[in-house]
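Ticket #4471: structure export looks truncated?
Reporter: QA, pipeline team
Priority: medium

Steps to reproduce: submit the single chain below to the structure queue and open the exported record.
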Amino acid sequence: MAVRDEIRQQREKLKGQGFKAHWDYFWEYYKIHTIVAVIALFFVVTLVRDMLNQKPYALYAMFINNQGIETQNFLQDGFAEYAGIDRKNETVLVDTTANVITSSIDTTTVATSEKIMALIAASELDVIVSDVSVAYHYASQDTFMDLRNVFGDDELKALSDRLFYVDRGYIDYLASDEYTDYITTGKFDHDNRYAVMADEYNQTFTYTVVDPATMDDPVPVGIMLDDSAPLEECGAYPAGGAVAAVVVNSERTDNARAFISFLLD
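Actual output as written to the record:
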């Protein structure tokens, strides 16, 4: 049987199965490609930045699953004017090329994940804007900064009805050996609320909104952008429900905060 036919047959077998089956298939066929691609992409990002774009970034924002045709130029120009950034000396980049489908592990989703990993490793990425499902996926992987380290108390209080939370206990569980064992075996402790949450997400790829009051350690990591005039004007997320978050190792948090304020204006 040709390799192409074998792969097609394997994909048919995976239909309707959960995360573990998809992950096992992907890792078996694409493990080496992924590792090589991550390493190569890291060096490419760094090299391109150094060779072709000598101007330092004032902001690098990534919009995942953007649907607006003119989102990039509209927001780059609008934010530069809003923040008074001299683009002759600094670069404002709103990257709208990234796409993630949380319900499957396809090449586009993997490429986006690799790009994000490389940009974070290079300390280049400042803000990620996405739909709720993708925001939850990356928040659970400890990708986002605690907004209490970005905004002041009064600012967060004013934004209290827009805050997007993740439970620190859930983040810690996903980083634990127990979760690694679950990915390998499919077995988990049904009395562990985080294990149950993880299994439910991996089976349905659906994020259930949890009241922060019920979380053991709620961490505000994102801001809901409902009724954002700039996003509505450029059509980035016509269905609404976008979330903005600051990347955990951003070195330009002042501009990241200003960019989110711009989106809320």
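Status: closed, not a bug. The export was complete when the record was re-opened. Leaving a note from the reviewer for reference: Residues 59 and 190 are 43 Å apart (CA to CA).
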